[in-house]
Amino acid sequence: MQDIRWKAFWLIVSLTFICLIVWAANDAETALITFSVGITLYLAHHLFWLAKLLAWYKKPDLNAMPLGSGAWEDVFATIYHEQRRHNRSKIQLSSALDRFRHAASALPDGVVLLDDDNKIEWCNKPAEQQLGLSLKQDINQPIVYLVRNTDFIQYLKHHVDIDPIKLKSWIKSDITLEIQLVAFGSNQKLLISRDISQVEKLEHMRRDFIANVSHELRTPLTVVGGFLETLSDMDGAVPESLRNYFGMMQDQTSRMRLLIEDLLTLSQLESGATSPDEAELDVPALLNTILNESKSLSNGRHTITLDANPNLSIIASAQELHSAFGNLVGNAIRYTPEGGSITMHWDENNQEAVFSVIDTGLGIEQQHIDRLTERFYRVDRSRSRETGGTGLGLSIVKHILSRHQGRLEITSEFGKGSTFKAVFPKSRIVSK
């Protein structure tokens, strides 16, 4: 640009110098006419090449690029080099896009590229098959117009901030899909669909197996436990030298019965075969019942207190919340040494209903907290055997809270105690 300006400057200076000579040789009128003609020719030259540039721009072909003259030679040369650079970048981007699409097409999972308005920019073959799309027909169409599933549309509204969801296919009833949104690029999203039908079948088989085995074991264990208890109560039936062994057998039989009951409860919750029997629940009254049960379980070894807001109730299943809250308090009793304290707290916080169990127990190291709700996960296996835990309590709590749109929050400091919170959304709170 600097060269163009200098060329224009020297041209005008030269024209002015010529006009001064003409003025000196003739008169001012002749000099003015000469200057006007020179400026007119200069403008005509620019308008000519500007028209050439406009004509080329409408059909930009590097092979037909005008050469230009004067200042326009530099302009056309610059445009030529920039256009070549742009073409190379376009080829590279197109090649990268083709590689991405080729790789995405090879994936067994469905992939749909959505813009900020959830319009389809591209999708692969598995996505067409799983979601009932057609790239040729549906490109630039809002996906909510094509996938008319209420749960799917509701999931899209939450953008990418929640976990994947499972949906029964609206195309084939025997197929289960897992749908997930992932942020991608600038205001774009990847929608990933995965066929998890086989996984779901295996999970269903696992749940059925556990439920059936647990159910079949419950009766013989009850019989064995009953005979052991009867023999222990009969005078002279059990020699004193064997009574200790009978006590051990009774303890292990009771522990097995508890394990089976927990397995059956967990299987029922995981299957989701029945919805919670929900109604307005007087939580403070329920917590008073749990307080009495926990004092009986503690047998005077701990200080147990309850602080409950008497005006705070929620819509929930009394049976399920009794199980969930009882498990949280029972765990606190088992893992708090004798002489420790356990506090139950029920109140509203940030428009959510919160039940907290605060203990002064052993505490939990940070690396274990994320895995506490896994089935049979124990921080200290020997301690769990001593306290009679089954390793399923927190799994049951997590599933019950999930069925009530709630969540479990755990904070702990090793050696100082733990806090377990069952948090329920505002939608479940009953206004008083």
**Backbone CA Rg:** 39 Å
Total beta strands:
13
Q: Separation of termini?
A: 76 Å
- CATH structural fold name of the largest domain: Heat Shock Protein 90
Structural class: alpha+beta
Coarse morphology? elongated
Mean pLDDT: 80
Strand portion: 15-25%
What's the CATH superfamily of the largest domain, by name?
Histidine kinase-like ATPase, C-terminal domain
Strands of the largest sheet, in order across it? 2-1-5-4-3
Number of helices: 14
Tally the structural domains.
Answer: 4
Low-confidence stretches are: none
Order of SSEs: HHHEEHHHHEEEHHEHEEHEEHHHEEE
Overall CATH class of the largest domain: Alpha Beta
Approximate helicity band: 55-70%
Query: How would a crystallographer describe the biggest sheet?
Result: 5 strands, antiparallel
CATH architecture of the largest domain: 2-Layer Sandwich
Task: Give a verbal description of the structure.
The structure is a single chain. The chain is of the alpha+beta class and 432 residues long. It folds into four domains: 2-94, no CATH class; 107-195, Beta-Lactamase, CATH 3.30.450; 199-271, Helix Hairpins (Orthogonal Bundle), CATH 1.10.287; 279-430, Histidine kinase-like ATPase, C-terminal domain (Heat Shock Protein 90, 2-Layer Sandwich). Helix content is 55%, strand content 18%. The protein is built from 14 helices and 13 strands. It has helices at 2-25, 28-58, 71-106, 125-131, 135-138, 143-146, 150-157, 197-233, 240-271, 283-298, 318-334, 366-369, 381-387, 393-403, and strands spanning 110-114, 120-123, 165-168, 176-184, 188-195, 279-281, 303-308, 313-316, 341-349, 352-359, 407-413, 417-424, 429-430. It has a five-stranded antiparallel beta sheet, with helices on both faces. A five-stranded mixed beta sheet has the order 7-9-10-12-11, covered by helices on one side. Strand 3 (165-168) and strand 4 form a beta hairpin. Helix 1 packs antiparallel against helix 3, helix 8 (197-233) packs antiparallel against helix 9 and helix 10 runs parallel beside helix 11. The longest helix is centred in the middle third of the chain and has 37 residues, at 197-233. The protein is elongated. Keywords: ATP-binding, Cell membrane, Kinase, Membrane, Nucleotide-binding, Phosphate transport, Phosphoprotein, Transferase, Transmembrane, Transmembrane helix, Transport, Two-component regulatory system. Its main location: membrane.
